[in-house]
Amino acid sequence: xxxxxxxxxxxxxxxxxxxxxxxxxxxxxxxxxxxxxxxxxxxxxxxxxxxxxxxxxxxxxxxxxxxxxxxxxxxxxxxxxxxxxxxxxxxxxxxxxxxxxxxxxxxxxxxxxxxxxxxxxxxxxxxxxxxxxxxxxxxxxxxxxxxxxxxxxxxxxxxxxxxxxxxxxxxxxxxxxxxxxxxxxxxxxxxxxxxxxxxxxxxxxxxxxxxxxxxxxxxxxxxxxxxxxxxxxxxxxxxxxxxxxxxxxxxxxxxxxxxxxxxxxxxxxxxxxxxxxxxxxxxxxxxxxxxxxxxxxxxxxxxxxxxxxxxxxxxxxxxxxxxxxxxxx
Length: 329
Ligand SMILES: Nc1nc2c(ncn2[C@@H]2O[C@H](COP(=O)(O)OP(=O)(O)OP(=O)(O)O)[C@@H](O)[C@H]2O)c(=O)[nH]1
Ligand SMILES: [Mg+2]
Known about the structure:
- The protein is an alpha/beta fold.
- Helix content is 35%, strand content 20%.
- The strands form three sheets. It has a six-stranded mixed sheet with strand order 2-3-1-4-7-8, with helices on both faces. Strands 10-9-13-11-12 form a five-stranded mixed sheet. Strands 5-6 form a two-stranded parallel sheet.
- A hairpin with an 8-residue loop joins strand 11 (298-302) and strand 12 (311-313).
- The chain is globular, with a radius of gyration of 23 Å.
């Protein structure tokens, strides 16, 4: 990438990255292109962006002309992972999304409040994941697109209400998933059924654990369960265990945070790259910029994967959470 790009380019790029509609993406990409100085060194970059722009424009117009209704379950992944909350009615799904994200779904003690899925962004330490509120699972009908979304996401949170027949609730959700050939990942290899199943990473949130007084309820519930479940007791109302839950989600997503810094500059820890665990330096460089993957020669590393601060490492070096990397091209 040319080294002399103006700050306006990076500002526009920032807006482009966070844009959610094709129209906005087109707008900010055009803005980015407008800021690039026109000389030999930027030829490749300008050609790349032009290609991207024409693709985006095609997508934007075809969206407008298409009469076909787009399912509300077609939710683009944003942030470091896509996490869905499912469960029976009134367990507290919307309350969690409303308290932990920027979205504002309706919450009510009346059953069957939520009709459509609603995504919001939740902070975990210094990065964001997408948390999706959904309508309750019901006996009669589950939208096939709802099931498809469950098949696609990075993590499924099954929420149950500790005060409302939690064992039956959990069985009901597991049964509905299995009827649709979806099974929690922790059961892989343990199910008697021979039929094809798609395994999804799952946690079970036992909500409304509002105080220690409910410990006995919780213990009885656990005893009544047949087998091992990845349980997390929480109270969305009091905030009990929500921080721990975020750390468990972080762990389950199988990602790490890596900071890229320029030589002689302070590291900016508010903007980590969130990448898959086990990533090698060269692949990480490719995430910072497409050209860097091939051009990278070496890098200096600070953090837990370094033997000492500022260690020079090779392209194959495996990065760890919170490493700071100074790429040398
Ligand atoms: N005591 C207690 N009540 C809670 C807690 N979390 C949510 N609630 C209450 O439970 C009721 C249902 O909450 P919602 O968030 O609307 O439940 P939902 O799962 O989205 O329900 P549907 O949209 O019908 O599927 C509301 O009255 C909430 O205030 C909690 O941790 N403790
Ligand atoms: Mg709801």
